[in-house]
Amino acid sequence: MSAFDYQQAIDAETWAFIARTESYYPSDTIDSSIDQQRAVYNAMCCAFAHGHPAGVSATDQRAGNVPVRIYRTASAPTAVILYLHGGGFMVGGLESHDDICAELCSRTGCLLVSVDYRLCPEHPHPAPYDDSSMAFAWVQREFQLPVVLCGDSAGGNLAAALSHASRAQPVGPIGQVLIYPGLGGDRRLGSYVLHAEAPMLSSRELLFYDVARRGAVAADAYVGDARFAPLQDSDFRNLPPTLVLGAECDPLRDDGAHYCRGLSAAGVPAEWVCEAGLVHGYLRARHSVQRAQASFERIVSWIDRRVKGG
Prior knowledge:
This protein is of the alpha/beta class. 38% of the residues lie in helices and 17% in strands. Helix 5 crosses helix 6.
């Protein structure tokens, strides 16, 4: 496979975002201890934080045993966004994605619940999924409102896994938004090879996160388990309408494209957007990179249409 020309594909704004990110979170961070990695990641996210828009309040409580943060506006909501944060199942939490969640709440008018699921390697799969599932069930009981599942990176995996599992329930989500998700694609093919050394996320980092997520379980133990890898589900029918956004310069890019093809073949409304010239983690660049801002606007508009029944 020919080498990819990142200099040609990535614009100056995005290169500035990459440089600023790497000044806080260098590519060799995975060689540090888990605690150090989490501290570095949190510091990096804090550096990009934009606070809460006016009129948004946030309260922390528990959804069963799972810590959550609930964002509200003054208006009565007509739907809930359940947000699952990214971070390779190993870093991140309520603080790392706080401003993103507050802005989504403000822009959509939805009540938003951010989930602080347990992290690997202390709590390998299926612990993050189990916590997300508990939070989803709690949200449905607590608010009695339609739910849109939303997640970035690892959180996109969890959101999709919840959609697949909820088909057995009387009421499932009305939609799902998956932002540069990792869905369990073949690491030997496509974007995993082309973008193995992409800025912001490499194949080496993906392998590290994958090993941490499995814990002591063998590499092939979760073959066919849609809770671990939604792409491995054999049935894509009866899933909710879906928006998947991928970054062009990301080893995970093709996971989203393959997932949407599976949904479309099963008759599920699915929209795939490959964001040209963007990199993994671009949500943090939505105030500094025009391409990232446009992608964030797509997310807001799609959720607004789903909530209003469009």
